[in-house]
Each structure stands twice: as structure tokens, then as C-alpha cells.
From TrEMBL:
InterPro entries: RAYT_transposase (IPR052715), Transposase_17 (IPR002686), Transposase_17_sf (IPR036515). This is Transposase IS200-like domain-containing protein. GO terms for molecular function: sequence-specific DNA binding; transposase activity. SUPFAM superfamilies: Transposase IS200-like.
């Protein structure tokens, strides 16, 4: 995995999935902090969020960055802003006995180190992923109807 190279292509959108460490369900409980983290990233980087859903322990989104090399930086800033804004107690509960260096590498044990990324190839790929994003709360048993999940850009 250390040889993994991300793809950065001009004029493309990217499907991204970001997950909390050990799937800790802290995102919805701290939704205002997460929204603020996105606002901070939007001030620094020029990108569009085409679709997004936030679940308790992970989030899926499609972003279209003005500069393709920015999507990794966008995720890093969101994760960092969210982590630094979290209550100290939550961060302490999330550490799970990490060493000092791994503690820093995993952003205080709040996030998984890496995130999933997929370059969207065409309109069919885009539609398939948008459908997956919006139906994800149903898949996880959080709601019965897409319209009922308020932590999404659906509608």
C-alpha cells in the first residue's frame, strides 16, 4: 500500500469516502463542527461538492476541484479542522492506546489514515455513484426513505 499513487486528472470529478477510526460514530453528533471544517476547506480550495452524505462514522462525496491535485489537500484540511475542534474527551476516547507518532499520523485516532478515491469516468459512472451515495443511509438501516436523511445533499 505504500506505493499507492493517486490519480489527478484535469476536468474530472472524484468520488471520495472518508471513515472514522474504528468506525467511531461521532460525525452526526458533531455535525456543526464538520460543516465548519468544510467551510474552512472551501475558503482555502476552489471545489464543488456535487453530492454528499454524512453518516455517523463515514462520509461519501463527489467533488470537482478546480485544481485536481487539491482533493487530497481538501480531505486533509477537513480531517484536521474537525479533529482539532473536537472535545478533548472524545479525542481521548478515540486514541485506543496509540503511540505518540501513530497518534499524530492518525489525527488523534479520529480518522482512518487513508481515504478511498475513485476518478469518475463518465456520466453513467457518475449516476451510479450518486445513487449509491444517496441510498447509503437506507443501506445502513438509518432511514427507510432517502428524503428522511437530513445529512445529505439529496433534494
Amino acid at each position: 500500500m505504500s506505493n499507492y499513487k493517486r490519480i489527478y486528472l484535469e476536468n474530472h470529478s472524484y468520488y471520495l469516502t472518508v471513515v472514522t477510526q474504528n468506525r467511531n460514530p461521532i460525525l452526526i453528533d458533531n455535525i456543526e463542527l464538520l460543516r465548519d471544517s468544510f467551510r474552512r476547506s472551501k475558503k482555502r480550495y476552489d471545489y464543488v461538492i456535487n453530492a454528499i452524505v454524512i453518516l455517523p462514522d463515514h462520509m461519501h462525496m463527489i467533488v470537482t476541484p478546480q485544481n485536481p491535485k487539491d482533493y487530497s489537500k481538501i480531505i486533509a484540511l477537513i480531517k484536521r479542522s474537525f479533529t482539532y475542534g473536537l472535545d478533548v474527551r472524545i479525542k481521548e476516547e478515540s486514541k485506543f492506546n496509540l503511540t505518540a507518532s501513530s497518534y499524530r499520523r492518525t489525527l488523534s485516532g479520529v480518522w482512518q489514515k487513508r481515504f478511498y478515491e475513485h476518478t469518475i469516468r463518465d456520466e453513467q459512472d457518475y449516476e451510479k455513484i450518486v445513487n449509491y451515495i444517496y441510498t447509503n443511509p437506507i443501506k445502513h438501516g438509518l432511514v427507510d426513505n432517502i428524503e428522511d436523511w437530513k445529512y445529505s445533499s439529496f433534494g
